[in-house]
Write a structure and sequence with these properties.
CATH class of the largest domain: Alpha Beta
CATH topology of the largest domain: Beta Polymerase, domain 2
Shape: globular
Low-confidence stretches: 1-14, 200-210
Distance between the termini: 90 Å
Number of helices: 9
Structural class: alpha+beta
Protein name: Nucleotidyltransferase family protein
Number of domains: 2
Order of helices and strands: HHEHEHEEEEEHEEHHHH
Helix content: 40-55%
CATH architecture of the largest domain: 2-Layer Sandwich
Strand content: 15-25%
Radius of gyration: 20 Å
Amino acid sequence: MAGGLGHVERAAHPPDRTQAILEATKHVAGLLKAAGHPFALAGSVAAYAHGVPASFQHDTDFAITREDSEAITRDLEKAGIQVRVPPEDWLIKARSHGEEIDLIFELARHPVTHELLDRAQTLPVDSVRMPVLAPTDLVASLLAAFSEHHCDFGPVLPIARALREKIDWDLLREESEGAPMAEAFLFLLERLNIIDARSGPAAGPREEAP
């Protein structure tokens, strides 16, 4: 009777999804590091590595170069990781610890370059150190993903708030010019006093007093 009750109690607890995502992240990062592949953690887990409270989406994102994708696929498969090529031509997908892993060679239609990966910062992720997109590059990738079909500011707002002092906002404004959704998000940050309002000539011409 006691054994049966214990079984029921254990079954009643749902799996720790956050920890499962972290375990998958550490597993794949360890394999990439061991094989010497350049990469950087991206997305919500990268934000967590920079100190943003954990609020993971449905997978872990790694930035890799397109030229390395075939070698990475081979090395992951040798390690027993299931890898598949989706219809989209800008990533490959893997699976570890029951969680999806996206290995991306285009971040919001911008190719991942060695320069981007060289700017990555080595940070601990649940005790395992790995390259993580620099804060400005991380937020830039999130802003570039905004479109008229995807404009949910909710997940990005706490990231911008937490990392605001580590981000080159002038550079992001420059890169976001002409992108309505990204510009709207930056304006929202100004109205919320998360970042300073744009000033000077870039704010637009001012009428002279008569």
